Automatic annotation (TrEMBL):
Domain Cyclin N-terminal: 2-52
Keywords: Cell cycle, Cell division
InterPro entries found in the cross-reference section: Cyclin/Ssn8, Cyclin_N
Name this polypeptide is given: Cyclin-like superfamily
Organism: Arabidopsis thaliana x Arabidopsis arenosa
Lineage: Eukaryota, Viridiplantae, Streptophyta, Embryophyta, Tracheophyta
PANTHER family assigned: CYCLIN
GO biological process: cell division; regulation of transcription by RNA polymerase II
Signal peptide: none
């Protein structure tokens, strides 16, 4: 996911199919994390997911022509990912500094679970491109402690021990709260439609016509005075 975000920070969404880039990112991440996955498995699984609406997709991808065509698309996406990132594949995630911080602070299991789940959510955003992993980990522990109403550390400004200033901590937490609020609004059910109201129409009473006093009736204005040369 971080590779995807990093790619689209420099490349166009409109010109690069996100499904191809997502598949290539997964395949490349397996190599970078020393957990290689066979290209054939990635190609077949990705094709079946992309075309899950088509019942014949699982049969079509096993045909030689279709398989090789889609495989070349994924390999082209991988090459584009590598060239865009300048072959820089060393991506440090917040999980390791988070585990170190939780162990150092002797955090409760509920607090650790909440912080871990928060990091899962941050990976889906561009937060990992904006701040360093230890900053995200420290701010996540502080945010999880706030939600759990738990005390963390032996000193009030414990985050200074992890190389995070108070100003930076507030900035990152503000970003995290904004992301949480955006996600909450996105997942809110739509409001119910307003109740229908029966309209009753009152029949107006008969109105007596009122005759306005005019110097001339509408059909007999003295137009002769306007019919002069140069006007008509």
């Amino acid at each position: 996911m971080v590779m995807c975000h990093r790619f689209y920070m420099r490349q166009s969404h409109a010109k690069n199919d996100w499904q191809t880039i997502a598949t290539a990112s997964l395949f490349l991440a397996c190599k970078a994390e020393d957990e290689p996955c066979q290209l054939s498995s990635v190609v077949v699984a990705s094709y079946e997911i992309i075309y899950e609406w088509d019942p014949s997709a699982s049969i079509r991808i096993h045909q030689t022509e279709c398989y090789h065509e889609f495989k070349e698309i994924i390999l082209a996406g991988e090459s584009l990912l590598l060239s865009t990132s300048a072959f820089h594949l060393d991506i440090e995630l917040p999980y390791r500094p988070l585990a170190a911080a939780l162990n150092r602070l002797n955090a409760w299991p509920d607090l650790a679970t909440a912080a871990w789940n928060f990091v899962h959510d941050w990976i889906r955003t561009t937060l990992c491109l904006q701040y360093k992993p230890h900053v995200i980990a420290t701010a996540t522990v502080h945010l999880a402690a706030t939600f759990q109403n738990a005390k963390v550390g032996s000193r009030r400004d414990w985050w200074l021990e992890f190389g995070v200033t108070t100003k930076l901590l507030k900035e990152v937490i503000q970003e995290m709260c904004t992301l949480i609020e955006v996600d909450r609004r996105r997942n809110m059910p739509p409001p119910p439609p307003p109740p229908r109201r029966e309209l009753t129409w009152a029949i107006p009473a008969a109105v007596k016509p009122v005759h306005m006093a005019r110097a001339y009736p509408f059909h007999s204005y003295p137009l002769q005075s306007y019919r002069q040369a140069g006007i008509w």
